[in-house]
Specification:
This protein is an all-alpha fold. It has three helices and no strands. Helix 1 runs antiparallel to helix 2 and helix 1 packs parallel to helix 3. The chain is rod-shaped and about 100 Å long. It starts with a helix and ends in a 16-residue tail after the last helix.
Length: 124
Amino acid sequence: MTDSQQIISLLFQELKETTKNIIALSLENEMSNELLNKYQVEQTEITHKIENALKEVDSAKIPIYIKQQVTECIDLEKIVKQKMLDYQSGVAIQLKSITNGSKVRGGYNNAFVQSDGYFIDKHN
């Protein structure tokens, strides 16, 4: 194993750990937003490092264990994506119930509006 392969393997390990941290976050907690942003920035930085390290390695000589790490990272990202989609749909449902509630409340609070003016009866 060359030094660059070892570096790439360590970077993928870091990426997996960061992704697992994102999966472990509770998105319901507002404090998690800061951690989520931090982890996403870390993911981006690690990904750039991996890309730069892969430029130095012949793609035909990438060992199987690194390819397995890539597959594991992709699988973890799919879990993150599903978690985000589930959270998004939950928020959309909550938002819809809030807007429906305000419509119902507005229906009961209508005040009778009477415009000032005269009515002219042509028949009388």
